[in-house]
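User: Let's play a game. I give you a shape written as tokens, and you guess the letters that built it. Ready? Here's round one.
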């Protein structure tokens, strides 16, 4: 006797949280002409602010010292994420769907759902990794990317000077004595002097922001009689996971205040970690305010591979695009191959993406504790 199942799925819940990217949003696509290579060459030249010196009567001209350029070599960061689909998976009832509704569904449709889900998951993984690159650059001027064992897989120090990452004299948690406005003004002036651009953006997490607004100095500046020096919004603009809380006049600098509390899972422990660490305040000269004077670029370098005929059928091959683009620029490449006996197939998402603060003197990070 055949028993009839009396259960039916009425709905489903799948936890989803988009990988926001406020920190990497300050980077734009670099040269599309890069076709290959494990290293990128970045020449730079610092000009300073020299002035013309008066000459004496009948003397010759002042011969200025020609400023030679220096070169930085940067290795690209390779990523490769994959997932496997077994033939047996095509007979299973997909997550959240009723087995009766699936009775007449073709295996190819089921395969399409699995491919799309896998590609989307890989895309999220890569997006969070790129945000981590931006996070480390803004807060340390370097990259130190680790694996599941905590071992460093990629390490690079950009030529941003250590003076751009100072520690305050009085911790912001000391609300009575801290001087956060003076601290921000000092770093902004240093960055402007070194980088020849005007800082206009600061980014911190919620804990640091609460320390900031609870200091006596900020409370006094926020007094109604001095409303022109600081403006805090109760409901700020939300963008890419960040909240624009207001603006601050610090010395001669006008700074937009962003609070960014997004997290990623630590690859070694699995515990959530904030992209912007506690007691860190990122300061950036954005291209929005400074135009061509600042450049923060991201570079995608295609993955080398031997041209071969795929053993995936044309029907399935059409379900998988060759690459994925973001903002008109390629960021990922897709590659699929199957077992000879048709028992399984593997889909890989490959990307060699590196974020580079080309204008390496136009940002910094204040340590507030």
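Assistant: Ready! My guess for every position:
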């Amino acid at each position: 006797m055949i028993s009839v199942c009396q259960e039916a799925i009425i709905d489903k819940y799948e936890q989803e949280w988009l990988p926001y990217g406020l920190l990497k949003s300050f980077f734009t696509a670099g040269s599309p002409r890069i076709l290959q290579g494990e290293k990128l060459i970045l020449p730079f030249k610092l000009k300073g602010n020299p002035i013309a010196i008066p000459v004496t009567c009948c003397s010759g001209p002042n011969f200025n010292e020609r400023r030679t350029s220096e070169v930085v070599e940067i290795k690209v960061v390779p990523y490769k994420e994959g997932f496997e689909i077994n033939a047996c998976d095509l007979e299973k009832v997909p997550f959240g769907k009723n087995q009766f509704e699936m009775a007449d569904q073709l295996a190819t449709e089921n395969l399409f759902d699995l491919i799309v889900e896998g590609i989307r998951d890989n895309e999220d993984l890569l997006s969070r990794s790129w945000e981590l690159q931006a996070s480390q650059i803004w807060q340390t001027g370097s990259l130190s990317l680790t694996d599941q064992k905590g071992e460093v897989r990629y390490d690079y120090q950009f030529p941003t000077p250590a003076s751009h990452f100072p520690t305050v004299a009085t911790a912001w948690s000391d609300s009575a004595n801290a001087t956060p406005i003076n601290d921000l003004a000092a770093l902004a002036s240093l960055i402007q002097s070194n980088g020849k651009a005007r800082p206009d953006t600061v980014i911190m997490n919620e804990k640091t922001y609460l320390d900031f607004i609870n200091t006596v100095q900020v409370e006094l500046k926020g007094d109604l009689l001095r409303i022109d020096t600081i403006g805090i919004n109760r409901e700020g603009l939300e963008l890419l996971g960040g909240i624009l809380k207001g603006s601050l006049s610090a010395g001669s600098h006008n700074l937009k205040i962003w609070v960014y509390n997004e997290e990623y899972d630590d690859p070694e422990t699995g515990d959530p970690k904030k992209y912007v660490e506690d007691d860190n305040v990122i300061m950036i000269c954005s291209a929005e305010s400074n135009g061509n004077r600042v450049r923060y670029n991201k570079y995608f370098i295609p993955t080398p591979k031997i041209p071969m005929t795929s053993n995936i059928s044309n029907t399935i091959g059409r379900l998988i695009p060759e690459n994925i683009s973001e903002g008109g620029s390629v960021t990922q490449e897709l590659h699929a191959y199957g077992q000879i006996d048709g028992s399984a197939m593997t889909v890989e998402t490959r990307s060699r993406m590196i974020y580079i603060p080309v204008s390496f003197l136009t940002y910094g990070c204040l340590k507030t504790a």
